[in-house]
Specification:
Strand content: 35-45%
Shape: globular
Number of helices: 13
Number of strands: 58
Oligomer: single chain
Helix content: 10-25%
Structural class: mainly beta
């Protein structure tokens, strides 16, 4: 049974960028940057393209909480020690079948150190007073506790004066001898696991290294550069000069003979070898193929999966954008097929990697390899390889990994993962040959970006396969964004196909303070990003409690620190709740002060009116400890909170007693500082609408440089101070950061521009003034939004146009512009439809989205180049969609870490203006996936959803797929998807337009193969998937074919070439595109 935390009702939410690697972004903004960036200190849009944590206001009265929703996997740190320069780590057991690891091998430059798990007994000390106070009951309890600790040990058989390239456990021979393996640059060493003494060795420089009858013995041998092995005794080492040597451990067992290392074969690959891996596959198809082709593939005396031999070795080369799979079959002399190439996988897209023909593919790669490497910096070489059988973690996945007719059935999939030097991870599904005439093949290529550092891959087992329901093989990808790669779906009884998932690891730090008022779900912990250079799974019942017996414990190290911890359950979202004891109404994250600002309403606990003891509370972003509280006046309620960066202007030369500016005033900003701006209203019982309100400016800074040493120091120096307030005639419904360090305020039916300035009378005092002429013409101005907090490059192109949108209670959305020369806010265009707005947001300067009271979403477009004035003053409706839930908040951002290909300004695309030069493999793609804006929304029912802006060709393709699925796929209960998503408002109802139903599109991945083929056939017959769209919709008049295009003009097009016109879609094309979107 699965349990999910209810987030509803979500009254408000905000985004907090993950700390850790992004801590440098917390530094204060310089005046020069602030002048270009506008309100750079605000957090709403400035962090759109950093992985974020969602903080929601949920619940009512005593059940009111703040919920932190994060994506990824948390690792709870159990121990940490400063240790620099770790280059590699491996865990060793005394016996292969042991459940606990005994040694942790650490490789440094020119040395190797070993840590061993030592049993420790510690006394439980108690004060005399405590003993007497407890009545002596504790005297009968045990005074000693058994535990464990890691201490430095020595393994005599290991070479500690060399850097270790590989270490692991082996079990070979008739008696099943347990051995420890160490590979260093000048040889291979076997150590008895009981005596820890050296029992066998092999060196590339010794005469024994040339013990077979191959014809390459006269070639010079070099030092070992990389190595890999498995537990059955297979060892592969790479030598300088591009030589690959296959070794096999033999002998030992009950006969009393010592194990030996036999060199099986050596080949030269022509280039230096960067990485190797020979981990055996464990899926049923691989085992059957193994048994059919190689009778000795399984150990004769032990058929356990731990001693299964590998049929393949994967090899990556320097200066080569490919991976080679070499055979490890039976050895029959020099002419054996051992180490013969069975498949060469070109890592670029658009290449036919699914077929065999190893020599032919190798020739193709050799001819074009240098050309590919020179085309793009994205073509980085393989730095790490991992052959692994992935096991499904759960059955609740709603989307799948790309499948093919030959995909393995069941919950295990054989995969090849390739980590590149630029932070990308490429995965393939590997199909073994089913008969002697078949060949190895790969399919379902998938590429993701995990950061900027090189990726190293470490397979590990999550949970206990015998007892845990979420057990399975996973892979840890190291780097500046360490990620767990795992498989979901595809289990027995599940309708979904398996899908590869990626969850970023964040460090979880528990709060040690025991708060008596803490509820059951008041578990306090902070999460921050960490970078991982090397890692290894490490299990020990002495080091970890029994509660973590079925969790995965890892040792990870960065440049300075070694950490030992346990990772959480592998799932997509994690929710942490913090009880408030009162109703939360508004929340904002203030990055400069590292606090959450929560506006709360009191008085609802007993069914009374919310007019007393209302307050704004400030919580630490790590421990969630309350730092301060600002109590509001009687009948005063919080309506809006924003974290912004305001410019402090020079004192006005001309003005009234409050310093209000005259139109002739020319002020220059002298400083930008981060503030928290709050809007309130006085809710008197005899008033239907508030007639008074305040704009309150609060400062909460750390008082330090931002690089704080600890949370305790951070709490000591932070302080909250009310700077200034501005009373206005009406409720302050919304505040938006605006250009030049100003703010826009909606007060009743007016939209007012406010500015912060230094006082003339009192030095150091600040005044908040409204400047210019406010904008009228609304019933109640509930919302105001602008793009002033967007990226710097976007700000530069918008310096001449200071746009904002205003959402009205009944009159939908209006576009306004501020003219600094005249200090005037003027309406440019409006939507003349009657929409009861519940939230609005700006996607681009010309595209706006809103939600209304009938649970619909609508998108408007401003056309400033229209020929007639009547068209220029009207916002055209280009999208309508029935969401089915009332939306309370929209904010730009994402829960996942963005890909480096698309991170940047709103409208950044993988194939748009930011990447105008296409690589050879990209040009072969039939479907271009172009993403514009990314918007998160929260609803009353507790739903958190994502809305993506689409490029023209992407929309055309997905719209065609949606129509084909509507025609072919039968929904559950025969309920019409089109009927449910139709726009419905009072007496008006018509089909949705301008939107793609992402949930419906992702169900394509769960269809069986025949149904997929029928859907693709309808798409090819429709032909509209390849219509070139300029971002303004199809040329046809059908409203259902309008496009929600919020990328820049020209994005998502390929130029004049139209290769798609002569092509047809395949199932693999559609699978790849839908998976990339999901």
């Amino acid at each position: 049974m699965e349990e999910y935390t209810n987030l509803g009702p979500i009254v408000d939410f905000d985004l907090r960028p993950c700390s850790g690697s992004d801590d440098n972004n917390n530094e204060s903004t310089s005046p020069e940057e602030a002048e270009v960036q506008g309100n750079s200190g605000g957090n709403n849009n400035n962090n759109n393209y950093r992985q974020s944590v969602i903080a929601t206001c949920s619940g009512v009265a005593k059940d009111g909480t703040v919920r932190l929703v994060r994506n990824g996997v948390g690792m709870r740190e159990h121990a940490a020690v400063e240790m620099e320069g770790i280059k590699g780590m491996w865990a060793l057991r005394r016996k292969l079948e042991d459940g606990d690891d005994a040694f942790l091998v650490q490789s440094f430059v020119r040395e190797t150190r070993m840590l061993g798990v030592m049993q420790s007994v510690k006394e439980v000390e108690m004060d005399d007073e405590e003993d007497r106070g407890s009545g002596g009951m504790q005297e009968e309890e045990e005074e000693e506790e058994e535990g464990g600790a890691l201490a430095e040990v020595t393994i005599p058989g290991f070479n500690s004066s060399k850097s270790t390239l590989y270490a692991g456990n082996l079990k070979v021979g008739g008696g099943g001898d347990d051995l420890l393996l160490q590979v260093v640059d000048d040889g291979v060493r076997l150590v008895d696991s009981k005596t820890l003494a050296l029992v066998a060795s092999w060196s590339p420089f010794s005469a024994a290294a040339k013990d077979d009858d191959s014809d390459d013995d006269d070639e010079p041998m070099g030092y070992i550069t990389v190595a890999s092995a498995n537990e059955s005794g297979q060892i592969v080492v790479a030598l300088r000069g591009g030589a690959l040597v296959y070794l096999l451990v033999e002998g030992g067992g009950g006969g009393g003979s010592s194990p030996t290392i036999r060199r099986v074969k050596r080949v030269t690959l022509g280039r230096e070898i960067s990485c190797v891996d020979l981990n055996p596959f464990g899926s049923q198809s691989s085992i059957m193929s193994d048994g059919g082709k190689d009778g000795n593939a399984m150990d004769e005396t032990n058929n356990d999966a731990q001693t299964r031999k590998s049929q393949l070795v994967a090899v990556g080369l320097w200066d080569d954008f490919s991976v080679r799979l070499l055979n490890l079959g039976d050895y029959d002399g020099p002419s054996s097929s051992v180490l013969d190439q069975v498949l060469c996988i070109n890592l670029g897209r658009g290449n036919n990697n699914g077929s065999g023909g190893g020599s032919q593919l190798a020739m193709k790669d050799t001819d074009h390899g240098d050309e590919q490497l020179g085309e793009s910096g994205q073509h980085m070489m393989a730095r790490s390889l991992c052959l692994v059988t992935m096991d499904s973690q759960s059955t609740n996945s709603n989307s799948i990994m790309s499948s093919s007719p030959t995909a393995p059935a069941g919950n295990s999939v054989d995969m090849l993962l390739v980590g590149l030097g630029d932070g990308k991870l490429i995965s393939f599904v590997v199909n073994p040959p089913k008969s002697s005439s078949d060949q190895w093949s790969v399919h379902s290529r998938k590429e993701v970006s995990l950061g900027t550092q090189g990726v190293h891959l470490i397979p590990f087992q999550h949970g206990s396969s015998s007892e845990s329901t979420s057990s399975g093989s996973c892979v840890l990808a190291t780097g500046d964004r360490p990620t767990v790669v795992y498989l979901t779906g595809g289990n027995a009884g599940s309708n979904s196909n398996p899908k590869l998932n990626y969850s970023t690891i964040s460090l979880t730090v528990d709060d040690d303070d025991d708060d008596e008022d803490e509820g059951d779900d008041g578990h306090h912990a902070s999460h921050k990003n960490i970078s991982v250079n090397v890692a290894t799974p490490f299990r020990s019942s002495l080091l970890f409690s029994s509660a973590n017996a079925h969790s995965s414990s890892l040792c990870v190290a960065d440049e300075n620190t070694l950490r030992l911890g346990v990772i959480d359950d592998i799932q997509k979202l994690h929710v942490t709740s913090y009880k408030l004891g009162m109703t939360p109404r508004r929340i904002a994250y203030h990055e400069a002060g590292r606090v959450y600002c929560v506006g709360c309403i009191s008085g609802l606990e007993n069914g009374g009116e919310a007019n007393q003891n209302n307050c704004v509370r400030f919580f630490d972003d790590s421990t969630f400890e309350e730092l301060s509280c600002i109590h509001l006046e009687p009948f005063e309620m919080i309506l809006t909170i924003e974290s912004v960066s305001l410019s402090i202007n020079s004192p006005p030369r001309d003005g009234d007693s409050r310093g209000r500016f005259k139109p002739t005033d020319n002020t220059s900003p002298v400083e930008y500082r981060p503030f928290i701006v709050m809007g309130t209203a006085y809710a008197y019982p005899d008033e239907d609408e508030p007639s008074q309100g305040r704009v309150i400016v609060v400062e909460c800074n750390s008082g330090a440089s931002g690089n704080l040493k600890s949370d305790s120091e951070d709490q000591m120096v932070r302080h909250v101070r009310q700077v200034v307030d501005l009373p206005l005639m009406g409720g302050i419904y919304s505040i938006a950061p605006f250009y030049d360090g100003n703010i826009l305020v909606t007060c009743g039916s007016k939209t007012v521009l406010c500015q912060l300035a230094a006082s003339v009378v009192t030095p150091g005092e600040l005044l908040l003034n409204h400047i210019g002429t406010p904008h009228h013409g609304h019933l109640i101005s509930l919302y105001v939004k602008s793009l002033a907090n967007s990226d710097k490059s976007l700000q530069k192109c918008q310096e001449k146009k200071q746009f904002a949108i205003v959402g009205d209670l009944m009159r939908s959305i209006a576009l306004v512009e501020y003219y600094p020369k005249h200090q005037l806010v003027e309406e440019l265009a409006r939507d003349f439809n009657s929409n009861y707005c519940t939230e609005v947001t700006m996607l681009t300067n010309n595209i706006y989205m809103g939600s209304e009271g009938f649970n619909n979403l609508f998108v408007l477009q401003y056309n400033p180049n229209a020929k007639f004035e009547q068209a220029r003053c009207r916002l055209d409706t280009v999208g309508q969609y029935h969401l089915g839930e009332m939306t309370n908040k929209m904010i730009g951002g994402s829960l996942i870490m963005p890909s480096n290909n698309t991170a940047g300004v709103p409208g950044a695309t993988a194939n748009g203006k930011l990447s105008p030069v296409k690589t050879s493999y990209e040009s072969n793609r039939k479907v271009d996936i172009t993403i514009g804006s990314q918007t998160l929304y929260g609803t009353v029912d507790g739903t958190i959803g994502s809305i993506l802006g689409l490029g023209g060709k992407t929309f055309a393709f997905l719209n065609a797929l949606q129509r084909a699925m509507d025609a072919i796929v039968r929904p559950v209960g025969d309920l019409s998807r089109g009927h449910y998503r139709a726009w419905e408002q009072e007496q008006k109802k018509h089909g949705s337009c301008g939107f793609i139903d992402g949930d419906w599109i992702e169900t394509f991945l769960d269809l069986n193969r025949p149904t997929m083929e029928r859907v693709v056939k309808v798409m090819n017959g429709d032909k509209k998937w390849k219509i070139r769209d300029d971002g303004k919709g199809f040329s046809a008049r059908d409203d259902s074919q309008q496009n929600l295009m919020d990328t820049d003009d020209g994005m998502g097009t390929d130029g004049p070439a139209s290769s798609n016109a002569s092509t047809t879609l395949s199932v693999e094309d559609v699978l790849g595109a839908v998976e990339e979107m999901s």
